[in-house]
Write a structure and sequence with these properties.
This protein is of the alpha+beta class and about 80 residues long. It has three helices and five strands, in the order E-E-E-E-E-H-H-H. About 25% of the residues are buried.
């Protein structure tokens, strides 16, 4: 079964496997959820370097998660994308 989610920047609905999930847990820790199963407030971002860079410049994850997100999370997303 395909689970469709929306990118926080492009607003494109797509299968969640085409998106990265970033989660803020109850303690306020921000992490990338590659299993798509972590509990907490989540935000999805398209697996595209241009989209991630544009989201970084606008700090979209901080807005979506309602918590300050360190810029290193965006760099980690880009490294994951390059590693795939």
């Amino acid at each position: 079964m395909l689970v469709k989610r929306r990118c926080i920047l492009t607003h494109l609905y797509t299968d969640r496997t085409n998106l990265f999930k970033v989660v803020k847990d109850k303690e306020g820790n921000i992490s990338i959820d590659l299993s798509y199963n972590k509990q907490g407030r989540g935000a999805y971002i398209l697996k595209d370097i241009e989209v991630i860079n544009k989201a970084k410049s606008k700090d979209m994850l901080s807005r979506a998660l309602r918590h300050k997100v360190d810029q290193s999370i965006y760099d980690e997303l880009i490294n994951l994308l390059k590693g795939e």
